[in-house]
């Protein structure tokens, strides 16, 4: 099986430059970085005393929380769709 070609880009998140490598498109990777940057800035406005490490962890916790809520919602919708098909 052939390995997918990996894209490499530099992105800026919360004032720091990071190199990202992935099989997703560079546009997708830039969007991810932009959303992370936006979320960190949003949380920083509400908690200006947080250092960047704590801010990053809080951003990750909030993001995973949102992901889990969406996963539960998707599962509910899939259950509803199965019921409608039966």
TrEMBL record:
Swiss-Prot/TrEMBL keywords: Cell cycle, Cell division, Cytoplasm, Septation
Top-level taxon of origin: Bacteria
Keyword rRNA-binding: no
Keyword Cell division: yes
InterPro entries in alphabetical order: Bac_CellDiv_Activator, Cell_div_ZapA-like, Cell_div_ZapA-like_sf
Matches recorded under Pfam families: ZapA
Primary localization class, coarse: cytoplasm
Residue ranges of coiled coil: none
Complex and partners: Homodimer. Interacts with FtsZ.
Functional summary from the UniProt entry: Activator of cell division through the inhibition of FtsZ GTPase activity, therefore promoting FtsZ assembly into bundles of protofilaments necessary for the formation of the division Z ring. It is recruited early at mid-cell but it is not essential for cell division.
Protein name: Cell division protein ZapA
Organism the protein comes from: Ureibacillus manganicus DSM 26584
């Amino acid at each position: 099986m052939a390995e997918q070609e990996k894209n490499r880009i530099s992105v800026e998140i919360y004032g720091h430059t990071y190199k990202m490598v992935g099989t997703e498109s560079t546009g997708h990777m830039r969007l991810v970085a932009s959303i992370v940057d936006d979320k960190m800035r949003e949380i920083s406005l509400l908690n200006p005393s947080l250092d960047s490490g704590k801010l990053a962890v809080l951003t990750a916790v909030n993001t995973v929380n949102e992901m889990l809520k969406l996963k539960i919602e998707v599962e509910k919708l899939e259950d509803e769709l199965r019921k409608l098909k039966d």
